[in-house]
Amino acid sequence: MIDRTALILGAALALMAAPAFAQEAEAPAAAPDAEKINMVIVYGEDKCEESSADTINVCARLSEGDRYRIPTQLRDDINDPRKEAWTNRVLAYEYVGRDGTMSCSATGAGGFTGCGLKEIDAAYAEKDQDPGLAFGRMISAERKKRLAAIDAEAELVEQRVLQFEKERAEREARLQAEADAAAEQELQESALPQPK
Q1: Which residues of 47-61 are buried (b: 16+ CB within 10 A; e: fewer)?
Q2: What are the CA-CA distances from residue 152 to residues 64, 164, 171, 178, 193 (Å)?
Q3: Per-residue model confidence as pLDDT tens digits over 111-141
Q4: Count of CB atoms within 10 A of residue 39's CB?
Q5: Nearest residue to 137 via CA among 58, 190, 84, 66
Q6: Which positions of the chain have pLDDT values less than 70?
Q7: Which residues pair with 37 in a beta bridge?
Q8: What is the pTM of this model?
Q9: How far apart, in whole angstroms, are the C-alpha atoms of residue 152 and residue 150?
Q10: Which residues contact 135 (CB under 8 A, 6 or more apart)?
Q11: H-helix or E-strand containing 62?
């Protein structure tokens, strides 16, 4: 028979080891050259940390009065029909009665095909009206700034390489000219005397 104490001890050890194995399995492997993006909202005169070599810090600055307020995008109801322009109301009726391909309706063949475009158009319209912070544009600007620095450094390296190649070509041409002159002189010295 199996000893009850040994069985309990084995189960306890298995339970204690399980979280360690789970943590090792769940830890995602980070890419070695993955850039980290730190998006921060700062208020008033708060300091924004500078970006480092492996981290892009993007700070959106809001006024000091907004520090303890509800964010602007949550203050108003963006779906309030009173805020919709008449043009948009009229355009909403454009698809009334349409069915078939590209209509986003349940009737007709291919009626579903227009739904994706309708959702994409709605998403872009919502994005244009969003009064919130545009971290995507700020990150893009920071990346452009970094790429400009990289391009400037690459230009300097390229100029140094071109200068080195030019000097090497001049040195090789000079050595070849010296070798040709030495060969010509050796040929003249070893030439047989001409009969008179």
Answers
A1: eeeebeeeebebbee
A2: 37, 19, 29, 39, 64
A3: 777 788 888 888 888 877 766 667 777 888 8
A4: 14
A5: 58
A6: 1-33, 95-96, 130-133, 191-194, 196
A7: 56
A8: 0.32
A9: 5
A10: 39, 58, 60
A11: strand 55-62
Q: What tokens does 2 get? A: 């199996």
Residue 60 near residue 42, CB atoms below 8 Å: yes
Helix, strand or coil for residue 175? Answer: helix
The three-class DSSP label of residue 113 is helix
Helix, strand, coil percentages for the chain (3-state, nearest 5): 60, 10, 35
What residue type is assigned to position 14 of the chain?
A
Residue positions counted in the chain: 196
CB 115 within 8 A of CB 98: no
CA distances (Å), origin 129, targets 83, 92, 95, 162: 11, 17, 23, 50
**SS3 assignment, position 34:** coil
